[in-house]
Design goal:
Number of helices: 2
InterPro entries: DUF6230
Organism: Streptomyces galbus
Distance between the termini: 40 Å
Keywords: Signal
Protein name: Cholesterol esterase
Shape: globular
Structural class: mainly beta
Number of strands: 10
Order of helices and strands: HEEEEEEEHEEE
Largest sheet: 10 strands, antiparallel
Helix content: under 10%
Radius of gyration: 17 Å
Pfam families: DUF6230
Amino acid sequence: MESQVRGGTRWKRFAVVMVPSVAATACIGIALAQGALAASFSVSGQSFKVSADKLVGTGFSQYGAIDSGYTLDGKKTAHPVAVSAFKSASITNMCQSVVTPNIPLLGSVSLTLKAGGGGTPVEAENLYIDVDDLSADATFKGIDIGVAGKDLNKGPGIKDGDSANPYGFAQQAESATLTDVKQTAWATTAGTFKLSGLKMSLSTGVKECY
């Protein structure tokens, strides 16, 4: 089998530190909520937490990769991750949070994004989540294992720009259902990301999704 290499728009090294413009952020949030933008959420040199009541995905694949980025002081970083990819996914009660510590005069500041509540889940296409820690109850349909560069034909393929071993271990499934999801991630990327009921909040102190 030939490998499938595909991906949406990738905004690598997009740093979320403080919100420079409330108006600009509101415009971006509205566009994302309407599914008008490809989306990427990552934090330079820092992981963030993601939780969801339920994720139902089709065309699932998973492979190992190296996530690279830069710290706030310009130092290059690299982290081993397991990339979970879905051709399409429906996510109920999704939460993403990142804590930026040691801000002068403020201390820690927490940014939280919530969406997919009220009976209308988040909808994503060509979704990639770079994870280094995951807990969930999972059910897979039609699962098999293979080689990352050869056998990933059920999911969206290896993400453009990923430092993945083409001979490394990989697994895939026709569908995957995860409940009570809690994970630590370094990046979330999607070709399209429709965030129904999007709510963003900034607060002082440490306030995370779980």
